[in-house]
């Protein structure tokens, strides 16, 4: 097989250049400018909330946005920092420092590239929906809890990382709330919430930042209000673009020890980035009527996350809100994403001085609204009315995300989802034993009753034949007063696993030792292939593998005659 067929890497950017027109370019430029404006406050807010800074947030949006648009598998995907990574990034910085974060991000990028080259894009999209809603809701709650200090101007220097300790700290410092900061934070939230009601074009977050920055300057100049903290009070924005820097290892740790310690975190970043970017691409496909290449998208995301840390950036992925803003404003090719990064680059180069005046309560208000939009509370309410198993997985994942960490939440959520799925599969599977006569049901035709030959019993397996059902089958065959001839009807068995094959082999060998004949009926082609590979067909004999129950009972009658 040719290597080019093994590697599924076909960036949409180069595909869309074929037949690219002036009209498409004009539409993409307009969409890119608008999305770039939308991304400004979000990139700054995500950078600060993650524990780095506004410049790092903007730099991530510039570099990652450019690389994801150029090498990704979606026409309209907009990449950059997102709220989902805030808690992970903050935790990594607290434990391993900025160097540890950079190394973990590079590792995650490599993992994403490997996933894409190994064609795992389609598999990752099968992550159970309750888990996605659970950890997204948990992240939203955690983001909200991190913004209370800035939203109300409490002035707490070291906010505890633990969720419960954090809220205990907030309540113990409730007397330190600054009225001016609290008012600005609450007004920012209100302004962002109501903006879509009178304008679909102006992003509420940008409007809130512009208005509140002007208000903060006026209050300081004419009312002497100096208690409202701004970005410039806490961060120093660099002049120009940062030079590439090789990430430093955490102090006192070897290279391999660092890789070992950071591997779980890197895997979490990679999985979260893969899930979020592919979900965003799937949503976009439904709107524009296109089909993204999930494997190429993973490679593009991976390349972005490998490069970004060398410029002080943070993990990035596809952003659903910005991608939808791109689509709604006419963006239809990756050129719009590239234009959006140019807008952010101009802000970083020439408007950094203005960024310093943005009030921290306003940025906190932006993130409060981000957390609200992430929470998916309507979906949670809807799911609570449906499947109990899905609801339990959702809330366990959510609570573990809030009170422990995202890695544990996803691991436990996946295990729960698998166990509950197997439970439902076992409950849906049915094994029955029939003697004397049996009803045969035909689709669209009259049912018939077949006489079962003497000394014959029929075991009918309905549903997937995997380890749980295989054990049930084993118990049933042991409890039954065995007949000399046993027909195993498998017309509703869609697949078999290793345990089922093993138990079936033991059952056949034990029956042969006791002088009994085993006949297989209605075996599907894919199941028969598994039986052939396992040697089951040779074990029972080809004459005893029948395509339907009529032939199986005829064969049983022949064997029964020879018993007399």
Strand content: 5-15%
Spatial order of the strands forming the largest sheet: 3-6-7-8-9
Biggest sheet: strands, sense, closure? 5 strands, mixed
Helix content: 55-70%
Overall strand count: 9
**Runs with pLDDT <50, length 5+?**
none
Total number of helices: 26
| Rg on CA atoms, Å | 31 Å
The chain-level structural class is alpha/beta
Number of domains as seen in the coordinates: 2
- Tell me the distance between the termini: 58 Å
Q: Kindly report the average pLDDT value.
A: 87
The outline comes out as elongated
Could you name the key traits of this structure?
single chain, 564 residues, alpha/beta, Transcription Regulator spoIIAA, 2 domains, two-stranded antiparallel sheet, 26 helices, 7% strand, elongated
3D architecture notes:
The structure is a single chain. By secondary structure, the chain is of the alpha/beta class. The protein has 26 helices and nine strands. It has two domains: 22-420, no CATH class; 430-563, STAS domain (Transcription Regulator spoIIAA). It starts with a helix and ends with a helix. The relative contact order is 0.15.
Short structural description:
By secondary structure, the protein is an alpha/beta fold.
């Amino acid at each position: 097989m040719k290597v080019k067929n093994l590697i599924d890497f076909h960036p949409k950017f180069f595909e869309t250049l074929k037949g690219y027109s002036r009209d498409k370019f004009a539409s993409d430029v307009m969409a890119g400018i608008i999305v770039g404006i939308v991304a400004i406050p979000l990139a700054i807010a995500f950078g600060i909330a993650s524990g780095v800074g506004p410049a790092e947030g903007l730099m991530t949006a510039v570099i990652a946005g450019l690389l994801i648009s150029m090498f990704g598998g979606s026409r309209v995907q907009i990449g950059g920092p997102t709220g989902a990574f805030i808690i992970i990034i903050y935790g990594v910085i607290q434990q391993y420092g900025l160097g540890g974060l950079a190394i973990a991000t590079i590792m995650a990028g490599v993992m994403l590239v490997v996933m894409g080259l190994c064609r795992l894009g389609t598999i990752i999209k099968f992550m159970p929906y309750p888990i996605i809603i659970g950890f997204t809701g948990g992240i939203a709650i955690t983001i909200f809890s991190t913004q209370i200090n800035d939203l109300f101007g409490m002035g707490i220097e070291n906010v505890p990382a633990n969720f419960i300790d954090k809220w205990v700290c907030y309540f113990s410092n409730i007397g330190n709330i600054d009225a001016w900061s609290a008012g600005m934070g609450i007004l920012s939230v209100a302004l962002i919430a109501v903006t879509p009601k009178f304008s679909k074009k102006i992003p509420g977050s940008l409007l809130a930042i512009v208005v509140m920055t002007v208000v903060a300057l006026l209050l300081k100049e004419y009312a002497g209000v100096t208690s409202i903290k701004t970005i410039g009070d806490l961060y120093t924005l660099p002049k120009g673009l940062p030079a590439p820097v090789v990430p430093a290892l955490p102090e006192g740790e070897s290279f391999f020890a660092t890789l070992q310690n950071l591997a779980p975190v890197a895997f979490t970043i990679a999985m979260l980035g893969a899930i979020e970017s592919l979900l965003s691409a799937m949503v976009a496909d439904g709107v524009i009527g296109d089909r993204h290449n999930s494997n190429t998208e993973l490679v593009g995301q991976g390349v972005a996350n490998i490069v970004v840390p060398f410029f002080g950036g943070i993990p990035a992925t596809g952003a659903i809100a910005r991608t939808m803003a791109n689509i709604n404003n006419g963006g239809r090719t990756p050129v719009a994403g590239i234009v959006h990064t140019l807008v952010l680059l101009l802000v970083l180069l020439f408007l950094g001085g203005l960024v310093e005046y943005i009030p921290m309560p306003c940025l906190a208000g932006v993130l409060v609204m981000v957390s609200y939009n992430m929470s998916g509370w309507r979906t949670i309410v809807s799911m609570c009315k449906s499947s109990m198993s899905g609801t339990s997985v959702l809330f366990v994942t959510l609570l573990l995300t809030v009170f422990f960490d995202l890695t544990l939440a996803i691991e436990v959520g996946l295990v729960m989802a698998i166990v509950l799925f197997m439970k439902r599969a076992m409950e849906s599977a049915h094994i029955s034993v029939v003697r004397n006569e049996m009803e045969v049901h035909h689709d669209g035709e009259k049912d018939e009753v077949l006489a079962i030959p003497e000394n014959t019993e029929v075991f009918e397996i309905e549903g997937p034949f995997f380890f749980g059902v295989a054990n049930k089958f084993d118990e049933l065959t042991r409890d039954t007063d065995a007949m000399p001839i046993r027909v195993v009807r498998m017309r509703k068995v869609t697949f078999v696993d290793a345990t089922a094959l093993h138990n079936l082999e033991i059952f056949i060998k034990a029956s042969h030792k006791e002088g009994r004949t085993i006949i297989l009926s209605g075996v599907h082609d894919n199941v028969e292939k598994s039986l052939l590979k396992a040697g089951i067909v040779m074990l029972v004999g080809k004459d005893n593998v029948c395509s339907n129950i009529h032939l199986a009972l005829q064969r049983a009658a022949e064997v029964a005659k020879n018993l007399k």
